[in-house]
Design goal:
Elements lengths: L2 E12 L2 E12 L3 E5 L6 H8 L7 E6 L2 E2 L4 H7 E4 L11 H11 L4 H14 L15 H13 L5 E5 L7 H16 L3 E6 L2 H7 L2 E6 L2 E6 L1 H8 L2 E7 L5 H12 L4 E3 L2 E6 L4 H11 L4 E8 L2 H9 L29
Parallel strand pairs: 3-8, 3-9, 6-7, 7-8
Antiparallel strand pairs: 1-2, 1-4, 4-5, 9-10, 11-13, 11-14, 12-13
The structure holds adenosine-5'-triphosphate and magnesium ion (MG).
């Protein structure tokens, strides 16, 4: 099989913090691979290693067959990177930003202008092309950022939380743009905190937590493992809580979580809903809330790790590590 990215045993430490702790990845050419995980999981660190902006302490990785440490220069020719924080120059206009990158990539003035125009059109930024980027909305900025990473027509694109902070419509628009790139044969490595985003875009997902891959597979695999949906039940009378709990565990076969009077259980088979209703009715238990909804990342986490994504069980070392970091910290458009 043809892998655009392959990594084995990547480890990166910042002082006391082990940001990534033995990560293996294999991303097939022409697909979208999603790194899904909560804040601090190590997603950006992994992306920066694969983008040659950081060197791993252990393990190795290749991108397009080139080693990210030894052949960093070749790797940079292949990739485009849209960092977690917008990298465009605020004082320049959209067009100027794209032109500048074209020039940095050593293409002729005419070609750079042509490419900028093309990108501004396909990213619906034509009208804003001559306005300083600081006047752009969040969604426009993200599009400009994405356009900036595409100036050099990369075969591989790294998107680090591309839709964080976007409204639902801008998010959908960005997803469409990404799908278009994939249809053109671009391989995409995407990091996200949203299960829904990984689900919608990625062919394969690796769930990362505390620097480790804790589950991986296709979205369908993961959902089958973790429960695609969550059943939410709340008894009308508080004292019925335990009875409801035992009905829910018996029928879903999972261990529900309880918050106040609300019971939540991961379910893979929507047929549990009528079964729960029937059983509660048979046992004469009144319910004030009963619903089935899509699982959030938190619930996937809960189901995989027994804790929620923001619950800090073994919180990695704090602050002090920052000054031990010597490599470049700028996210450059490559
Ligand atoms: N340059 C650095 N110096 C010190 N510690 C760092 C540095 N970069 C990352 N870390 C630490 O490594 C861990 C992983 O961070 P990373 O940025 O990779 O997480 P992330 O999954 O991208 O999180 P987020 O969703 O918040 O972007 C965190 O504990 C973070 O504090
Ligand atoms: Mg990050």
């Amino acid at each position: 099989m043809d892998y655009a990215i392959s990594a084995e045993g990547l480890v990166k430490r910042f002082g006391e913090t082990t940001a990534i702790d033995g990560v293996d990845l294999a991303v097939r050419t022409g697909t979208v691979f999603g790194l899904l995980g909560p804040n601090g999981a190590g997603k950006t660190t992994a992306v920066r290693i694969l983008a040659t902006l950081l060197q791993p302490d252990e393990g190795h990785a290749t991108v397009g067959g080139y080693d990210v440490v030894r052949d960093a220069h070749q790797v940079r020719q292949l990739i485009g990177l849209t960092g977690q924080y917008a990298a465009v120059d605020e004082t320049l206009t959209g067009a100027e930003n794209l032109l500048l990158i074209g020039r940095l990539l050593n293409v002729s003035k005419r070609e750079a202008r042509q490419r900028a125009k093309e990108l501004l059109t396909s990213f619906q930024l034509e009208e804003a092309a001559d306005r300083p980027a600081k006047t752009y909305s969040g969604g426009m900025r993200r599009r400009l950022d994405l356009a900036a990473s595409l100036v050099g027509r990369p075969r591989l694109l790294y998107l680090d939380e591309p839709t964080t902070g976007l409204d639902p419509r801008s998010r959908l628009e960005l997803w469409e743009l990404v799908r278009g790139l994939v249809a053109d044969g671009v391989t995409v490595l995407l990091t996200t905190q949203y299960l829904e985003e990984a689900d919608s875009l990625a062919n394969e997902i690796a769930v990362v937590d505390h620097g480790k891959v804790i589950a991986s597979g296709t979205p369908a695999d993961l959902k089958a493992r973790t429960g695609a949906q969550s059943l939410v039940v709340k008894p009308l009378i508080d004292t019925d809580l335990n009875r409801v709990l035992s009905v829910v565990s018996a029928i879903t076969g999972s261990s529900p979580s309880v918050e106040g009077q609300v019971i939540t259980a991961a379910v893979t088979d929507p047929a549990v809903l009528p079964n729960v209703v029937r059983r509660l009715d048979q046992e004469d238990i009144a319910i004030s809330e009963l619903s089935l909804r899509g699982s959030s990342l938190d619930e996937v986490f809960l189901s995989l790790t027994g804790r929620t994504a923001d619950e800090k069980t073994s919180s990695p070392g704090t602050g002090t590590a920052a000054d031990t970091e010597t490599e470049t910290t700028e996210e450059v458009a490559v």
